[in-house]
Specification:
With 162 residues, this protein is an all-alpha fold. The protein has a domain of 112 residues. Helices cover 62% and strands 0% of the residues. The radius of gyration is 18 Å and the shape is elongated. The termini are far apart.
């Protein structure tokens, strides 16, 4: 019996932001073609909701770009279709194993609030489930095989999301 060869990359076939864009695109279609679901409707002003949404959108983008910058400084692959060269444990990776995805989710949620879009909120759990099944599980399996001891210790110390 022979041991299987280590996999050379996580096997993710698309950039993960596409899942968030797909969710927002589907929300837009549902808003236009089915029924508009507003979080605040009628004559009520959505200014507070828009302000909170924009703040969350910006906060999420900052977290995502902090993660990207940290990966770039470590000179490891940013896209999960490529092999990792190291386990990044600095910057936002001290607190979350997936700060870029957390940032994308916070930005998505903030954008949904700013757009007063109920459909986008309804679809967010499906986007997150797709991200987990199609990306995160593959990345974690890959990293556990490529860096067994280092990633095992890191995984024991740092939460997946927040």
């Amino acid at each position: 019996m022979t041991a299987s060869a280590p996999i050379s990359n996580p096997g993710v076939r698309f950039p993960p932001p596409f899942l968030f864009l797909l969710g927002l695109g589907l929300a837009w279609v549902l808003e236009m073609r089915v029924v508009r679901i507003r979080l605040i409707g009628g004559s009520a002003t959505a200014l507070l909701l828009e302000t909170i949404g924009l703040a969350l959108l910006l906060l999420g983008l900052l977290l995502m770009f902090w993660g990207l910058l940290t990966f770039a400084r470590a000179r490891t692959a940013i896209l999960p279709m490529r092999p990792a060269s190291v386990i990044v444990q600095t910057g936002p990776y001290r607190f979350s194993r997936n700060p870029m995805y957390v940032g994308m989710a916070v930005s998505y949620f903030g954008g949904a609030l700013a757009m007063n879009s109920g459909w986008a909120i309804v679809l967010l759990p499906f986007v997150m489930y797709g991200l987990y099944r199609l990306v995160v599980v593959r990345e974690e399996d890959y990293l556990a095989g490529a860096f067994p001891e280092e990633y095992g210790a890191y995984r024991g110390r740092v939460r997946r999301w927040i």
